[in-house]
Design goal:
Layout (H helix, E strand, L loop, with lengths): L1 H15 L3 H8 L3 E10 L5 E10 L7 E7 L5 H18 L4 E7 L8 H15 L8 E5 L5 H15 L22 H16 L8 E5 L3 H12 L3 E6 L4 E3 L6 H11 L9 E3 L11 E4 L18 E3 L8 H10 L2 E3 L1 H4 L2 H15 L5 H26 L3 H20 L11
Parallel strand pairs: 3-4, 3-5, 6-7, 6-10, 10-11, 11-12
Antiparallel strand pairs: 1-2, 2-4, 7-8, 8-9
Helix pairs in contact: 1-3, 1-13, 3-13, 4-5, 6-7, 6-11, 6-12, 11-12, 12-13
């Protein structure tokens, strides 16, 4: 993932004509934190995990990014995702830099008490480098509002009442209305904008989704609400399709009870891997990274790909999509709804004033549509694809902020 994210950065840097020195400056993380976490299991045995927090840039504001709990978490993955968060926050125009991290554990193998203890130990190890004006974590893979509440509580033991140290908290612990749906709703807004630019309506399109977790399910629901036909959904355990359109609410209820879309009686079963090449107008990869590769890119039948997941498209596949004329809306634009509403939650925590859901949805729509306009304008001006345009826009905004804050010698070469 690290090399893929850098490949996209390099492509945009080539268009901008950045020197090797400036590229190194922009890619180099501010800080990499790696900590050992020794806790006690329910059986009284010592267990050890490793926690990571990579902080990429604070040029445009406090650093922001998710915490994921997964055995695959390592320094390279966290570094790649921290870089992407810097570009994502810049593209959508929220005043943050990028960070990412997590713990190399499998929550399914841990009791709630064990998970709580590991989380609190992690906070104790990194408390000096996070905070409402330093670095603000959020939920990611296998983390949720409950875990964010634990983090807030543990950090507040050291620093006093600090709800703004994390976002994605439960509503009753100073979370925000609309945060759970934010990424999926943002995906729908972006799709509407891209279709509008093609003089099409979302009610005219069919959609296939890979993944039906938080992001995929909310994207499907909000798309269906405005008229899109969800014809296929695949997840880790199976797939279900209906050419007349799946009932998304019933599918969500089924998945909540059984943990997968597999077996849903409102459609026909299929091999979930086939969803990536489904006969649909729009493909929404909303689960794993690196799923669109040189091996399946030629078989993709959608004319629009909306990257709801982080880094779902390999560079070789991206090149194939450009050649084939498939419109790819990159992750640093398409799934930025989550960090945008995280920004709203943080602002509410700082203000100690709760916003209503209607205001949050209105502000989210405004931010996402404005970001779409900005990226599309760069794409037209530079005659490049949307991914390259999004990276160009982000690099320019980070460079401009660096020049404004500290016009040191290296910064003079940064893009204006």
């Amino acid at each position: 993932m690290l090399e893929e994210s850098r490949a996209y950065f390099r492509h945009a840097a080539n268009v901008l004509g950045l020197s090797d020195r400036v590229r190194d400056i922009l890619l180099c993380p501010l800080r990499i934190v790696k900590v050992g976490l020794v806790t006690e299991s329910d059986e009284g045995k010592l267990i050890k995990h490793t926690g990571y927090r990579v902080q990429h840039s604070r040029v445009r504001g406090p650093m922001k990014g998710g915490l994921r709990y997964h055995p695959s978490v390592d320094e390279d993955e966290a570094t790649a995702l921290a870089n992407l968060m810097t570009w994502k926050t810049a593209v959508v125009g929220v005043p943050y830099g990028g960070a990412k991290g997590g713990i190399n554990c499998d929550p399914s193998d841990l009791s709630e008490r064990e998970l709580n203890e590991i989380t609190r130990t992690f906070v104790g190890q990194i408390k000096e480098v996070i905070g409402p004006t330093i670095d603000i974590p959020a939920p990611d893979v296998n983390t949720n509002a409950k875990i964010m509440g634990w983090i807030m509580d543990e950090y507040s033991k050291y620093q006093g009442f600090s709800p703004g140290v994390v976002t994605g908290k439960p509503l009753h612990l100073f979370g925000s209305e609309g945060r759970e749906e934010a990424t999926g709703r943002g995906v729908t807004i972006v799709l509407e904008e891209m279709l509008r630019r093609q003089n099409k309506s979302i009610s005219e399109v069919t959609v296939a989704l890979q993944g039906f977790g938080n992001v995929g399910s909310h994207a499907a629901r909000t798309m269906a609400e405005v008229g899109a036909k969800i014809v296929a959904v695949g997840d880790h355990a199976g797939g279900v399709c209906n050419k007349e359109g799946l009932d998304v609410d019933q599918l969500a209820a089924w998945t909540a009870q059984r943990g997968s879309v597999a077996g849903f009686p409102g459609g026909d079963a299929f091999n979930s891997d086939d969803v990536l090449t489904w006969d649909a107008d729009v493909l929404v990869p909303a689960a794993l990274g690196d799923v669109l590769t040189k091996d399946n890119a030629e078989d993709v039948r959608a004319s629009i790909i909306i990257e709801a997941a982080n880094s779902p498209t390999m560079p070789e596949a991206d090149e194939t999509f450009r050649r084939r004329g498939i419109l790819v809306v990159p992750d640093i634009l398409a799934n930025a709804g989550g960090v945008t509403v995280s920004y709203f939650e943080w602002a509410q925590n700082i203000q100690q004033f709760q916003w209503e859901l209607g205001r949050i949805r209105h502000e989210l729509s405004s931010h996402m549509r404005k970001a779409c306009e900005s990226v599309a304008a760069v794409a037209k001006q530079r005659d490049v694809d949307l991914r390259t345009a999004a990276f160009i826009l982000a690099i320019q905004r980070v460079g401009e902020a660096a020049l404004s804050r500290r016009p040191y010698a290296e910064a003079r070469d940064l893009p204006r």
